[in-house]
Design a protein that fits this description.
Blueprint: E1 10-14, H1 18-30, E2 34-38, H2 41-50, E3 56-60, H3 69-79, E4 84-88, H4 93-100, E5 107-109, H5 114-147, E6 152-156, E7 162-166, H6 168-174, H7 178-181, H8 195-208, E8 210-219, E9 225-237, E10 240-248
Parallel strand pairs: 1-2, 1-3, 3-4, 4-5
Antiparallel strand pairs: 6-7, 6-10, 8-9, 9-10
Helix pairs in contact: 2-3
Length: 257
């Protein structure tokens, strides 16, 4: 969902206290926002589903009887990615930490001024746009990754460098299917002929953050040994550190030297 900041932004204000909701609505409208109110989590979900023009949600955590704001937020975000800011009178660490696991667009204390709330909304929108651009870039990369004829794989840097993805070209040279590869490490699959080579390029990766054209021996599922040139680079996907690996028959040229 792309939000145009040059147009009047529609806010869904979820607040169970009628007087407070009316006060906040008027304050936000004075700042140029269009505001729709919902007194409960259930109604917030219903309003959100019926109105695709809503650009941001201000969600109270305690909504009296029925669904809590955190639960309503989870259900809404499961259906659609949208900037959502929690608004609450609670300031204890446990509550704030709980909301951070749901959305990263902000937490505003109810006693804050309209100036603070307005600034929080603008910051959330900027962050949302940045995240959207990042997602678009990741989607383009993944399309190229899967269609290139060069063997490539992606490893989870935080989890023993297990494979999290690979392309058809990589499956073809190692002889394993994608289902056999994902969740395993190269070591567990027996892809190394020489463990000293593995230790050497991992040390290089640790020291400089990348490896280029490292000549190594690769063992396939059938036991065949292949000489390949390995290049590795650290990369961030969905805010998580990964390792991107490329296996080529000959050294490849890098243009940033």
């Amino acid at each position: 969902m792309k939000i145009n900041l040059n147009k009047q932004l529609k806010v869904l204000l979820v607040e169970d206290e009628a007087l407070l909701a009316l006060t906040e609505k008027k304050s936000l409208e004075l700042y140029g926002y269009t505001v729709t109110c919902a007194p409960s989590g259930e109604e917030a979900i219903d309003v959100f589903r019926k109105d695709p023009t809503i650009g941001i949600i201000l969600m109270d955590i305690n909504l009296g009887h029925g669904m809590e704001g955190t639960e309503a937020a989870k259900l809404i975000l499961k259906e659609k990615d949208i900037p959502l800011i929690f608004v609450s009178s609670h300031t204890d660490k446990e509550v704030v930490t709980k909301t951070e696991g749901i959305t990263s667009y902000g937490y505003v204390v109810k006693s804050s001024t309209i100036t603070v709330l307005d600034a929080s909304i603008k910051m959330a929108l900027k962050l949302f746009r940045a995240n959207q651009k990042l997602k678009e870039s990741e989607e383009k990369f993944m399309k190229a990754f899967h269609f290139t004829p060069t063997p490539m794989a992606i490893h989870d840097f935080s989890n023993r460098n297990v494979f999290v993805d690979c392309n058809k070209a990589f499956e073809s040279i190692v002889g394993y299917s994608k289902d056999e590869i994902i969740g395993k490490t190269a070591l567990e699959l027996g892809l190394y002929v020489n463990l000293e080579e593995r230790n050497e390029f991992l040390n290089i990766l640790k020291e400089q953050g990348f490896v280029r054209n490292f000549r190594n021996s690769l063992k396939t599922k059938a036991g065949k040994e292949l000489i390949r040139y390995l290049s590795l680079s650290q990369m961030t996907i969905s805010n998580k550190e990964h390792i991107f690996s490329v296996q080529t028959e000959a050294p490849i040229e890098f243009f940033d030297k």
